[in-house]
């Protein structure tokens, strides 16, 4: 720690699953290794199987503990009671930083943070949207409600933290120019993850890893495989991950006559999952800056992804290789093309891995986040330096 002061940091998210949990998990491990005391808040009963095991493994690094409170996906009448319960748990911990992730985690972090401040604990409140409510359409009822809440909560926020320029642009377009500080800090992966992963001998032709939901394009994978089979191209696909709608996708695969062709698997360590397919699919309809893309590229696995969210920022000069979102024909065509040029597909994957390594590093992400945290805590300590001018990321005061 550059200034010798250990910080007390609590992260708040709804469900410890997917890329948001991966982001928090990386931050917690780096922050604990740097000597900070870290805690985690998540929803009661969230995280099962592989995710639950990851949370258990992470608990050893959590000096401020794991705190579970009821936390539904949507705004509900029980949120106030849950926030009060969480305030009673966090007040004795006297955190310096309360960092909310996702719409619900961000709401709890800022409301509880405000209560802590009113009680004399000058906690800094941060919010990372990670997509979340930004996926709603502005004209929808849900969008109008959530965007109004987001706008109101800015007054209880010391800093917004965006993971991509795209996410920041969407926030500005749907919610407005931030009235609080905002920063851009890219997600990143560890140096060890840049070791290549080879496909298993019995790997499917394609693998799609992550939460099974239409937003992630799970239905598109099934329909694309069906389209290729109808054209006489025999391909297989593995869908790996959690999801409350899995039964619907299994029924769709059966309806399309793809039993045994499209298989379904539970969550597993990401590098093991990446090995379950010769090419990885990320056919999302919307994203922020998805870890699955970073993890796949770092492992030098061939990848077919859509041009949504911050994915073009990751691909940079190679963004022209991305496909349009939401359509079965573009996905099926890209899948057929990848099978027709496996060597070229693999070479492009290796080149892309080398290209992203300097920018998308978890160590750089954690360092930038700590610098931001300290710049927010520093005003409370007269002798503390303000490192905001040397943040290794774009930092903005609004």
From TrEMBL:
Cross-referenced CDD domains: GT4_PimA-like
Stretches assigned to the Glycosyltransferase subfamily 4-like N-terminal domain: 17-190
Protein name listed in UniProt: Glycosyltransferase family 4 protein
InterPro entries the record matches: Glyco_trans_4-like_N
GO MF term list: glycosyltransferase activity
């Amino acid at each position: 720690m550059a200034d010798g002061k250990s910080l007390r940091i609590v992260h708040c998210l709804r469900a410890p699953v997917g890329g948001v949990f991966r982001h928090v998990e990386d931050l917690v491990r780096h922050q604990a290794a740097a000597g900070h005391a870290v805690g985690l808040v998540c929803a009661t009963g969230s995280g099962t199987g592989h995710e639950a095991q990851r949370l258990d493994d992470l608990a050893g690094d959590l000096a401020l503990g794991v705190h579970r409170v009821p936390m539904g996906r949507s705004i509900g009448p029980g949120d106030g009671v849950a926030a009060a319960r969480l305030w009673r748990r966090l007040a004795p911990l006297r955190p310096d930083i309360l960092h909310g992730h996702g719409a619900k985690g961000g709401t709890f972090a800022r409301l509880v943070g405000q209560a802590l401040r009113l009680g004399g604990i000058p906690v800094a409140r941060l919010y990372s949207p990670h997509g979340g409510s930004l996926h709603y359409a502005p004209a929808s009822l849900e969008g109008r409600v959530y965007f109004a809440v987001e706008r109101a909560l800015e007054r209880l926020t010391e800093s917004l933290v965006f993971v991509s320029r795209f996410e920041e642009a969407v926030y500005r377009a749907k919610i407005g120019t931030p009235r609080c500080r905002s920063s851009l800090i890219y997600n990143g992966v560890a140096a060890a993850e840049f070791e290549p992963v080879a496909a298993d001998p019995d790997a499917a032709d394609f693998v799609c890893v992550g939460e099974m939901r239409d937003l992630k394009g799970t239905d598109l994978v099934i329909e694309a495989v069906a389209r290729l089979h109808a054209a006489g191209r025999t391909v297989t696909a593995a869908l790996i991950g959690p999801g409350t709608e899995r039964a619907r996708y299994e029924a769709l695969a059966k309806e399309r006559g793809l039993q045994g062709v499209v298989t379904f698997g539970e969550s597993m360590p990401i590098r093991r999952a990446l090995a379950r397919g010769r090419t990885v699919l990320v056919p999302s309809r919307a994203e922020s800056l998805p870890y699955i893309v970073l993890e796949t590229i770092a492992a030098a696995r061939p990848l077919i992804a859509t041009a949504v969210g911050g994915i073009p920022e990751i691909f940079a000069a190679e963004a022209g290789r991305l496909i349009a979102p939401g359509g079965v024909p573009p996905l099926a065509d890209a899948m057929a093309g990848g099978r027709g040029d496996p060597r070229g597909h693999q070479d492009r994957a290796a080149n892309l891995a080398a290209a992203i390594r300097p920018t998308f590093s978890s160590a750089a992400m954690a360092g930038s986040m700590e610098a931001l945290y300290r710049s927010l805590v520093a005003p409370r300590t007269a002798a503390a330096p303000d490192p905001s001018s040397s943040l290794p990321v774009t930092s903005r005061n609004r």
